[in-house]
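Notebook B, p. 112. Complex prediction, attempt 2.
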Amino acid sequence: MGIPKVLNIWSTHQFWVGFLTALGIAPENIVFSSDTSEEQYREYGKGRGTVDCCYPVKCMSGHYGELIFGQKKKIDILLSPMIYSLPSFLRGHVLDTLTCTRVMAGPENIKAGFLKERDVFAENGIRYVSPFVSLGEPQKVPKQLYLALKDVLDLSEDETARAVEAGYRALEAFNQKMRQKSREILTWCARHDHPCILVLARPYHMDPGIGHEIEAELQAHGFPILWMQYFPIDDDLMQWLFGEEIRAGRIKSPFDISDVWPSSYSSNTNEILWGAKVAARFPWITCVLRFSSYECGMDQPTYTPTQKIVEASGTLYFKFGDLDATKPAGSIKIRVETIVHYVGKYSPDIIRRKLAALPPGCPLLEETTPESAPLAA
Amino acid sequence: METITRINHYTAYRPRPFTREERATVTILFGGLTWKHERLIQGVMHNLGYKAQPLPNITRADLDAGKELIDVGACCPTIFTTGNLVNFLKSEMAAHGRDEVVKRYVFLTAGACGPCRFGQYHESYTMALDGLGLRDFRLFLLAQNQLDQGATHGGGLEINLPLSLGLVWAILCADVLTDLEYMTRPYEVIPGETDRVLRESIEYLYDVFRNRPQAKLRGGKLKIFAWHVLTDYFTDALREVRRRWASIRVDRLRVKPKVKITGEFWLQTHEGEGNYNIKRWLEQEGAEVIPPPIAVWLDYLLHSPITSEEWKGAERDRKKIALIRALEHIYHFVYNRFRKALGGLPYELPDQEELKQLAKPFYHYELRGGEGHMLVGKALYAYRHKKAHMICELSPYSCMPNTMSIGAMANVLGRYPDLLYAPIEVKGDAEVHALSRCQMILTEAKRRAQAEFEEVLAKTGLTLEAIRRYEERHPEVQRSTYRIPHYGYAGTAANYIIHLARKMGRSVAA
């Protein structure tokens, strides 16, 4: 079973691993394609593109090609789900948690490049499976995956439903583990009054070939990096950050973003806006890195609101926009130096001002749990 | 509280109320459709006591104004429509002053489209308002999928059944008239006749909507709905339009390729500089254009919930599906009544189920955003039913959903290599490039139309002279309102010859 490691697979891979292993597929028989790279596209995806679009979708041709042509052990099935909605922690607080229109339809676009002249999947003895799946609505998922996979994997409805449950459990366990790790980092920052950098980006910017590891360059300078997707959402922390605004009636819950983003349909967009709100409030996040890919239509309307949200509290904001296939190493280096300078210079003041705006009693400072091992920083 | 006020956190734009008392003095601005649709919508609004005014038609200058004030990377419909509002407000501010503009106008626009950027246009509008120093200007959103949304904040605008049904009926009437316009103008004998009668017809229909009987707009929702569905008020008006239209004489022996327009909602609907005036340009290049009715989009919105509701399977949801299906039937019934009132000339609405099935191997029908699977479905529908020689798909540069369906079309073209398909990417400022790309495909479409025409002449054994003689004896066939059935040829001229051959008593297989 080959799965292209693209788009929202970056935030749902644990679901797919949990789901497939629960169906009896051995973990070693679940193969993800490599991280995105220009070489991957040149070798496996060239000539398969059908339209010019953002790189996170365009690069999928290389991932498909690598799974078809680049495996030592040939795959039998290429699974590329059309993920329509996502299981976001904001669900219930926002209008919807849909994926980007390109993200959900990407497989239909990319498969065309492998079918337009002849059926490349069939020629290579591979079954192409692309279930339409609403991961944001768990009650729909068993039926959706059953209908899409029953003939391919010889499934019953019951075992599919059980496997779906296992998939969600695996995803939730992973997310919780990551949030716990983030909390440990934040606790360390709070206790040492150390600045921390928050990344606001889409999940697939974690792919070194899409996000170009810009945040890693900053981490090398001693600043812990957190991704908004895994920011801790524990009630004590949320109440500390948003409690007064809830009581003042500005928002209904810590996860309500209607005060800054009324059109809250897109899951990743919603989370980016929520992350911006958190960054604007959390004292030890003194800097935000915003990543955005070239031609991202979902990000485009959010550029100014996100920046305004973050900068309202004096938090530093740096955007790396129009990211594409090539890593602009030189300009990244120069900008990283600038960021390091500003974070070093202004963080103490930013922390002090943001702390003063919050009620006393930061839960991270009052925690009795043992602090995690010293960070590399 | 004190701790919160130390940092003034960002908040999104919130319009101040538009009150009921302001209705008499505040003008509701709107736009985004064609001048015909907008004029009839204005009639509906006037009928209900609102002051309403469409924004001026889009110009190239709007693109520049929009680019100045919103974030980079926006799609051209966003830029054009934002710039359009900006330029109007600027000119009004110059004439009446800032405060007067804020007091005098509100802007109403469609929102709530789900995943596509279309539902976020208002973010660009508010950013532009900030740029103009008009943060206190009022902008309201109208959901596309609810007929009864209640009063807007302040009660100045009530989105109720009389308004919503009026808007839908106005759109349907403008749609059928637009069909008539585009099937007539390329063949008109006296240049300019179509546009002249069209203007008169729209003004006449404006009065019809402006004078909707108030007594029929009061009472229960069911009563109001039933009146709109069953009344002869609108069909009588369309019959009058048909009577006026009959004065236009046409020459259907002009061989023209039929070009079906599909694409992103705003670009395909628009008539003007926002899409390089491509429909007029195609006509100038010798084509007959099949315009995209907004009615198909509304039908899609109506039909879409069925696919998601079907998953649930509960008794309550089955009832909901049955209700939606009933509404679909009523919707088609109304549209077909309007078509019939115009002599059956406007095109029928494609069956949504058929569009879904045609697109199925290439594009999943539950993928939302833009027109979803319909772009693939419509192209195949026109191809399979021989409704057009060529598809011209208009997509904004960087349009998220359209780029995906254009990509999927590569698979379609692999299976149907003789489908003539011209995907045109519109940036707003690259006219020559876009039109020359379209022209390449149009050249082949012209060749096919000519070949089809010659085939039909040979098949019927008719000569042009014989046809002209018949036309002289039967001048009614040259009326624009004379209906030519579809005999399986895409071109108007080919179907016309088959029709006349049959009228002459010749036995011709379709």
